[in-house]
Design brief:
By secondary structure, the chain is of the alpha+beta class. Helix content is 16%, strand content 45%. The protein has four domains: 204 residues, Porin (Beta Barrel), CATH 2.40.160; 139 residues, Immunoglobulin-like, CATH 2.60.40.10; 128 residues, OmpA-like domain (60s Ribosomal Protein L30, Chain: A); 104 residues, 2-Layer Sandwich (60s Ribosomal Protein L30, Chain: A). It is built from eight helices and 29 strands. Strands 1, 2, 3, 4, 5, 6, 7, 8, 9, 10 and 11 form an eleven-stranded antiparallel beta sheet that branches. Strands 12-21-20-23-24-13 form a six-stranded mixed beta sheet, with no helix packed on it. Strands 22-19-14-25 form a four-stranded mixed beta sheet. Helix 6 packs across helix 7. The two termini are 58 Å apart.
């Protein structure tokens, strides 16, 4: 062991130096707790078969074992072998995995011992010549080996996958243990053995009778994983193996060496469980018995009442602050088409062509905003000199619209005139027509045929959507305490409480005041989330309560100068982006890729990106579920490709969809929705 002790230091020193360099260059990546893993969150275990090459080394001190011939003391040796190995690995944390493997390792090699002896070529002549020979003891050693190891991610991204440090104990059992001992003449070149008339001669062979039945060792080294997609990798290992036990029971004979291997790492995952949509903001803390509904769900408006206000409801206090900062918003989705009625080339009345001002495209309803598709695209053309407009008219086929190509052309002409009316130069407009659209909807469904009766609008050299925008905001945040006196309200009717400062309506069911949990008056708290002007000295908060024939109203003023101000870096809570896909397609368009790049560049690192896939009702339920999954997954993969490891990404499917009874609603449901959370 003395001869090879220095050589043992070499691989250990290399590992120590690599770890030190890693620590110096990026210590935070080694010692920090990672929030993301390069492996799938759904991974149960990983299986990786490997094949490889072994460079075996021996350190020994023995002259012979049972069956071999004593020709001196063997002290070193080496050899080559191969390995086949199968390992099962389980992730413990995002940085640490534990593995157990079994395989066959060929640890064969040759021990060599040189000696020089005087030889007389002729006894009578008395001439002496020195001959150098080498005693070669070749051991055929094959082991069934079990390895237990810990794998630690030094970095999650080295080339295309993680670089890991691997270390662990090893247990092996001999399957092959034979030897061949021979002698070979090194010099002079013309010398041969008389018995064989060759330069070599056999000495002994057979089984190594004293082979040790159980061996213990340790392995450590590095593993690089090259990603091949879908959570699978090609592992490449450089390992150093050392056995604590001797090869045989009675001789000093250590076995160690290096191995180089490669294979495939297959990830076995549990079934995809698509998460639900993130929950809506929690309702205000109120007494049991009240029902909270959106203001949009109330069928009556308090502003139309003719009853005189009374003081059954009163604001008794406000606790809060002013919130300032920047908020990230996404533009409402654009359905770039005009849909026509069956056999008609007249643009439907719902479309707005003449308008003095466009509404906000950051807040509102995607279906309602579709009415502005022509002036909206006209404004994009105006902001992008050099852009071009392509109009492609189509029909639902001659079986349903006999006008055919002529009808498609007339529809194109109608939209062409509308764009000219909106101020677009006719020189930059191209007109096309076809029986069916380029991206055809399913003609087997009546809804699909309705969708094909359209003019698609394409823009070249300009983005169809601005997509993301950072806007300043000032909001009043906090909570308001409300007192409600029930004695004048009729017990057989519900009471609706409507605040102006929060998008909820509180409903107290009829007869609730008879419950033991109610008294003749209630005190409860309503959250405040109200946009305010920057120059306002006093902020008015009001609340009303109504139950025929009683109507009560109260107003409360807050002095803005007395409130603390909280600055926010970037508010992501209002961000909701919708990216559309073509019918029956999960492929991201070039426009969508450009929008995702824009978003990835602006959104801060570490943000949680929630991607929800969606599909319309056309087609089978199984296919639609598949589309929802693939659209979300393709979006996730693209974001990871342009911003690797920047975000934590969650995918799922949309539960609350756009109404399916309009063409634009179904187009919007062929999409993914993106929300952000810090």
């Amino acid at each position: 062991m003395k001869i090879y002790s220095k050589k043992l230091y070499i691989p250990i020193l290399i590992i120590v130096l690599c770890l030190e360099l890693r620590a110096g260059d990026n210590a935070s990546l080694i010692h920090s707790n990672r929030e993301e893993s390069p492996f799938s969150e759904r991974e149960i275990i990983a299986v990786h078969p490997q094949i490889g090459y072994l460079y075996n080394l021996y350190s020994s001190h023995f002259s012979n074992f049972q069956g071999s011939v004593d020709c001196g003391i063997f002290e070193k040796g080496s050899g080559n072998g191969y390995l086949t190995f199968l390992e099962i690995e389980r992730k413990i944390t995002n940085s640490i995995c534990l593995g157990i493997g079994v395989g066959y390792f060929d640890r064969s090699g040759t021990l060599r011992l040189s000696s020089t002896l005087p030889v007389r070529d002729d006894i009578n002549a008395g001439n002496v010549e020195y001959v150098t020979t080498e005693n070669r003891l070749h051991a055929n050693l094959g082991y069934l080996e079990f390895q237990f190891d810990l794998r630690y991610n030094l970095t999650d991204k080295f080339i295309t996958g993680p670089l890991r440090f691997v270390a662990g104990p090893r247990l092996s059992f001999p399957l092959l243990n034979t030897f061949n001992q021979s002698e070979y003449i090194i010099s002079p070149d013309n010398a041969t053995f008389k018995a064989t008339n060759r330069r070599d001669r056999p000495i002994a062979s057979g089984a190594i009778q004293t082979i040790r039945k159980t061996n213990f060792g340790i392995s450590f080294g590095f593993e690089n994983l090259l990603s091949i997609g879908n959570g699978n990798f090609i592992p490449q290992q450089i390992m150093f193996d050392y056995n604590f036990t001797n090869v045989t029971e009675s001789e000093v004979w250590k076995n160690f060496g290096f191995r180089f291997s490669a294979g495939l790492r297959f990830s076995i995952k549990r079934a995809e469980k698509l998460p639900a949509m993130p929950p809506s903001p929690p309702p205000p803390p109120i007494d049991t018995g009240m029902i909270v509904v959106s203001k949009n769900d109330t069928s009556e408006s308090l502003s139309n009442t003719e009853m005189c206000p009374s003081k059954e409801i009163k604001i008794i206090g406000f606790d809060g602050y002013i919130e300032k900062g920047n908020a990230l918003y996404a533009t409402l989705p654009l359905v770039n088409a005009v849909f026509f009625s069956r056999n008609s080339d007249v643009i439907p009345r719902k479309y707005i062509i003449e308008t003095d001002s466009l509404p906000s495209f950051f807040i509102g309803n995607g279906i309602n905003i579709h009415r502005y598709v022509i002036p909206r695209i006209a404004s994009i053309i105006e902001k992008n000199p050099g852009s071009k407009l392509i109009l492609c008219g189509a029909t639902s086929g001659k079986d349903y619209e006999p006008g055919g190509l002529d009808l498609a052309q007339k529809r194109t002409d109608a939209v062409y005139k509308a764009f000219i009316h909106s101020g677009v130069d006719k020189k930059i407009i191209q007109k096309r027509a076809a029986i069916f659209p380029k991206y055809e909807s399913n003609q087997d469904f009546a809804e699909g045929r309705d969708e094909n009766q359209r003019v698609d609008i394409f823009v070249e050299k300009a983005p169809l959507q601005e997509y993301v925008s950072v806007q300043k905001f000032i909001r009043l945040r906090g909570s308001v305490k409300i007192k409600l006196d029930l004695k004048n309200f009729p017990g057989n009717q519900t009471i609706k409480i409507t605040p102006s400062f929060y998008d909820t309506t509180l409903v107290i069911p009829s007869g609730a005041e008879e419950s033991p949990i109610f008294t003749k008056s209630l005190i409860f708290t309503i959250p405040v989330n109200k946009a305010i002007p920057n120059t306002l000295d006093k902020i008015s908060l009001d609340v009303s309560a109504r139950s025929d024939p009683v109507y009560s109203f109260d107003k409360y003023e807050v002095e803005s100068s007395k409130l603390s101000v909280k600055e926010m870096e970037l508010d992501l809570s209002g961000f909701e982006a919708v990216l559309r896909f073509d019918y029956d397609s999960p492929v991201l368009s070039d426009d969508n890729k450009a929008l995702l790049k824009q978003m990835s560049a602006i959104v801060p690192e570490g943000t949680t990106v929630m991607i929800y896939g969606s599909a319309d009702t056309l087609g089978t339920e199984k296919r639609n579920r598949q589309l929802e999954y693939e659209r979300a997954l393709n979006t996730q993969n693209f974001i990871n490709s342009v911003a690797p490891h920047k975000f934590k990404i969650i995918t799922g499917k949309i539960k609350k969809k756009y109404p399916q009874d309009t063409e634009e609603g179904r187009f919007l449901n062929r999409s993914i929705k993106i929300r952000l959370k810090k």
